[in-house]
Design goal:
The complex is a heterotrimer of chains A (about 325), B (about 325) and C (about 290). Chain A has a single domain, classed as Rossmann fold (3-Layer(aba) Sandwich). With about 325 residues, chain A is α/β, with parallel strands linked by helices. Chain A is globular. Chain A is about 35% helix and about 20% strand. An 8-stranded mixed beta sheet of chain A has the order 6-7-8-3-9-10-12-11, with helices on both faces. A 4-stranded antiparallel beta sheet of chain A has the order 2-1-4-5, with helices on one face. In chain B, the strands form 2 sheets. An 8-stranded mixed beta sheet of chain B has the order 6-7-8-3-9-10-12-11. A 4-stranded antiparallel beta sheet of chain B has the order 2-1-4-5. In chain B, α3 packs across α4, α4 crosses α5 and α5 packs parallel to α6. Chain C has 10 helices and no strands. The chains are: A alpha/beta (about 325), B alpha/beta (about 325), C mainly alpha (about 290). Chains A and C meet through α3, β6, α4 and α7 of A and α7 and α8 of C.
Chain lengths: ~325, ~325, ~290
């Protein structure tokens, strides 16, 4: 197996909360958005980070992109630490890692034409020799992203483009720097269903043609299932389960994953399976339960008669079989 | 007799660039106690069609034609005054983005009581409060939290509060517009379950508007598939989803990943919906359709009745 | 496959703004008044130049009601009020515009920096802004007039310095909300420098707001100048409408019923301020990002 492209070790991202309540100790003072996460991303793989809101997936994505500074832990690219970089080395790294955002209506500067948007990365990194060279690169990126005719589209402004087209513009602007690694945060959740597949197909094609690696962040487990090679399920800032997409969905080992998979709706429902609908909601990351953070909502915890170990000891991420890992005392 | 029967509804919107033919001849019906799914992608006209029932359309909307028979009366013939008596008492709406539509400076309890007073002016404060708290329990909110403000509620809880608010005057028909779209998948499951329970407990009828076919498949008994202001297919959920007749329906179903099937990539539908200011002559799906017979571009297909519980508008079915 | 020809023709931002401005009754009235005012103040003095030394020779011509010779009558020195009004319009306008320039430039820069860099720098800048916000204009100008004499320049400086705070606050809050938007995150993740982010991404998005605000500040500045000049603190050499009113009052025009001396400058001030205010409010509604369509 190839050495990993990105390695994340015991990453913690804690946000302090300051208010009169925390001052007097009435409310907890730290939001533990990411609470000790370790995983690797291998070249040309698509790794999906899946979880509900508040699980920390977006925070991890932003940390990898150096938009947020971690509280502790390391993020390494090609074996070299990324967290403490500055200046020119940081800028060079930034070229290799790109980001696709969720909201195609918000991720583009409304005042810039498509040309400006796609050319900007080249201008920032001074990667062009002349105006003609810039144009060639921009048009090539637009075409690679499936936008024809590139010259005409480059003159338009975002508000005249559809959601799918805007997302393609965003993708083109990442391609222009020839990155190695792309973090995609819910890249299609705001697009119509019939357009989603196209954008995802584009991303997959680009992975093959340009040797890209993806970190795909989504709350949609069924989407992760068809796109990703491996899936990581997060809950309250920690990994609950990690494994290949087919294994994780086909036979999930962690009670949380099992519940999530059981409630995924399908257009042609199979009525034999009874969905496990968890009660209540995910607690706030400022108030994380002791021991296994999932235990208050865990159906298995209930079923096994409230075992103490779940309340007292946080389970490690253990190897189950063939690359499936789960953080549960009982799987 | 149908509980709700919409016939030939035509609604256009005035805009700076011309009239948008948002809904162009839509007919469907609902039986009492039924949950009907109104499905389609953005801009297909599903919300406009549904909100025309309680007549809650924006100012620039023009209802050009059609009848909306509710309990054998045509709602479109009623005056605004009469509609005010019907809204909330007979027909209630849970709006899209309802979670963010709550008044941030009023307690949840007060906001639920408010419509009671508005629509039943003679009611005593004690009875109104009792009803509100009772409903909160029904939707899964503890009465001790009734005095909280919206920002103290999570997204899922706010949606439950909105549902409670819609039921407060005991309506017969509830229109839920994308009630779970912005929610996490587990909360989605909880809320959809809740809606099903409430429908059977209170003997409601519901129109569920959603772009998510999976949710409709798991919750509704009948479905209407809309595209560019027209209905392309409608029928019972079991028929339509197991053997979809219209190419659009087939393509749309294929665009949703199904974990119960083999793991293969979904297909999208290339292209865009047509411009509704100058809608095309023939079938509105023609541009993006894979089939495309000779008359599809010029002649608009009419509804063909298939089995007892399915109809689709496609020339392919007339051959 | 991705044919975009079915999308509407791209209309330039300026053109669509103009269309909306003209469609709004407030905006249309403002623009018409503005055109009138600008013609008045730029063409007027060219066609009807004013000679302050052209005074009365007989006592009958002093404070004379309108005649065929003097369309708007004469002032207490026998000068033609019509021509004086035309000349005064330029002064009022120029002082207003120059003061606004200072105000907008300072206000925008402070607002941009305070909004983008928040933290300590932002706080310091905002406290400075607060200081200038409450600085009373009247005592300040009196003190400066005593020290440096009354002039056009002092007026412009004082009005400019006491009005930039408003702009700074507006710009700052807009910058704060812009900086949280996803596209800024994206640009930052590309490795753009702060300078680039502020100059290329934030400033163009704040510019419409600044523009609308500018028009309103012009109105305020003209009014401020008129007020100060009326109180006698204007430039004695460059006579503005405010100064005219000042002299009119001193000459007892009100008591003597010389309405022709009071109404032109007074109405002039009202008209010009109204023109800028109406246009400015309409522009604000159009350009305010809260209300944008897309």
């Amino acid at each position: 197996m190839n050495p990993p492209l990105v390695e994340i070790q015991n990453l913690k991202v804690h946000f302090p909360v300051r208010s009169w309540r925390t001052f007097f100790g009435i409310s907890p003072s730290v939001v533990r958005a990411v609470d000790g996460v370790t995983f690797s991303i291998y070249p040309q793989e698509i790794l999906a980070l899946v979880g509900e809101s508040g699980c920390g997936k977006t925070t991890i994505g932003k940390t990898v992109l150096h938009l947020i500074k971690p509280t502790s832990g390391s993020v390494c690219l090609h074996g070299k630490d990324m967290v403490h970089l500055q200046g020119k080395t940081l800028r060079d790294i930034r070229r290799k890692i790109q980001l696709i955002f969720q909201d195609p209506y918000e991720s583009l500067d409304p005042r810039q034409s498509v040309f400006d948007i796609v050319a900007e990365p080249l201008i920032i990194h001074k990667l062009f020799k002349s105006r003609e060279d810039l144009e060639i690169k921009v048009y090539a990126a637009l075409e690679a992203a499936g936008l024809y005719p590139p010259k005409e589209i480059s003159r338009r402004y975002p508000h005249l483009l559809s959601g799918g087209q805007r997302q393609r513009v965003a993708i083109a602007s990442t391609l222009v720097l020839e990155p190695e690694f792309i973090v995609a945060d819910e890249p299609v959740s705001m697009l119509d269903v019939s357009i989603r597949a196209e954008i995802i197909r584009l991303m997959l094609d680009l992975r093959d043609k340009k040797n890209l690696t993806y970190l795909f962040i989504t709350h949609d487990l069924s989407l992760a299932w068809i796109i990703a090679d491996r899936i990581i399920v997060l809950y309250l800032g920690k990994i609950m389960e990690m494994g290949s997409a087919s294994a994780l969905i086909g036979s999930p080992k962690h009670p949380y994953t099992q519940a999530l998979v059981s409630v995924i709706p399908s257009p042609q429902p199979v009525h034999e399976q009874k969905p496990i609908i968890l009660k209540g909601e995910t607690p706030s990351p400022a108030n994380i339960p002791t021991g296994c953070r999932f235990h208050p909502r865990c159906w298995n915890y209930q079923k096994l008669g409230l075992p103490d170990i779940c309340v007292n000891q946080e389970p490690d991420l253990r190897f189950i079989d063939q690359e499936q890992f789960a953080a549960c005392h009982f799987s | 007799m149908s509980f709700l029967d919409i016939k030939n509804l035509v609604i256009h919107f005035k805009s700076q660039m011309g009239n948008v033919h948002a809904v162009d001849g839509v007919s469907f019906g609902l039986h009492e106690g039924e949950i009907l799914g109104l499905a389609g992608e953005s801009g297909c006209g599903k919300t406009t069609s549904a909100l025309s029932i309680p007549r809650l359309l924006p100012d620039n909307a023009m209802i050009i034609n059609g009848n909306i028979f509710f309990n054998d009366e045509d709602l479109l013939l009623k005056t605004e005054n009469e509609m005010e008596h019907i809204r909330w008492r007979k027909i209630a709406v849970v709006f899209q983005g309802a979670m963010n539509a709550l008044n941030p400076v009023k307690t949840i309890e007060n906001q639920i009581i408010e419509p009671i007073f508005q629509h039943e002016p003679g009611i005593s404060h004690r009875e109104a409060k009792h009803r509100a708290l009772d409903l909160l329990i029904q939707v899964g909110i503890e009465p001790s939290r009734a005095r909280n403000y919206p920002h103290e509620f999570s997204g899922g809880m706010r949606q439950r509060a909105m549902i409670a608010m819609s039921l407060v005057c005991k309506p017969k028909l509830v229109i839920a517009d994308e009630p779970v779209t912005a929610l996490d998948v587990m909360i989605q499951a909880q809320i959809m379950n809740l809606l099903k329970e409430l429908v059977s407990k209170f003997n409601l009828s519901m129109i569920l508007i959603s772009h998510d076919l999976s949710i409709i498949a798991e919750t509704c008994s009948s479905v209407v598939i809309m595209y560019a202001g027209k209905i392309l297919e409608k029928g019972s959920v079991s028929s339509v989803f197991s053997h979809p007749a219209h190419p659009y329906t087939q393509a749309l179903i294929r665009a949703f990943p199904d974990i119960h099937k083999t793991r293969e990539f979904v297909e999208g539908i290339p292209g865009y919906p047509p411009n509704l200011i100058h809608p095309p002559e023939g079938c509105r799906f023609f541009e993006r359709c894979k089939v495309r017979l000779e008359n599809c571009q010029d002649e608009e297909p009419s509804m063909t009745i298939l089995e007892s519980n399915q109809q689709a508008a496609c020339h392919l079915l007339n051959k | 496959m991705n044919d975009t020809s079915s999308f509407p023709k791209q209309e330039s931002f300026m053109k669509s703004t103009w269309k909306l401005l003209w469609a709004d009754p407030k905006g249309r009235a403002g623009v018409i008044l503005l055109i009138f005012v600008l013609l008045f103040s730029f063409l007027g003095p060219v066609l009807f130049p004013f000679n302050p030394k052209d005074m009365a020779t007989t006592s009958k011509e002093i404070l004379q009601a309108p005649t065929a010779q003097h369309w708007w009558g004469t002032d207490e020195m026998g000068r033609d009020v019509f021509r004086a009004t035309l000349a005064g319009s330029q002064v009022s306008l120029v002082v207003g515009l120059m003061a606004t320039l200072i105000s907008i430039i300072i206000g925008s820069i402070v607002g941009l920096i305070a909004g983008y860099y928040q933290g300590f720098l932002g706080n310091v800048l905002m406290r400075i802004t607060d200081f200038f916000l409450v600085l009373p204009i009247l005592p300040l100008i009196i003190v400066l007039a005593v020290l440096f004499g009354q002039s056009f320049t002092i007026l412009i400086l004082v009005i400019g310095l006491t009005s930039w705070s408003g702009t700074a606050r507006i710009v700052r809050s807009q910058v704060i909300s812009l900086r949280e938007r996803q596209f800024i995150d994206r640009i930052r993740s590309l490795g753009a420098s702060d300078f680039r982010i502020i100059g290329v991404h934030i400033l163009p998005n704040v510019l419409p707001l600044i523009f609308a605000n500018t028009v309103l500040v012009i109105a305020g500045s003209i009014l401020a100048e008129a007020t100060l000049a009326f109180l006698g603190l204007g430039d004695p050499v460059h006579v503005s409408w405010g100064t005219m009113l000042h002299y009119a009052f001193i000459a007892g025009a009100a008591g003597r019923g010389a309405w022709w001396y009071l109404i032109p400058p007074g109405l002039g001030i009202v008209t010009i301020v109204l023109a800028f205010t109406l246009t400015g409010h309409s522009l604000d509604q159009i350009l305010n990002p809260r209300l944008r369509k897309y």
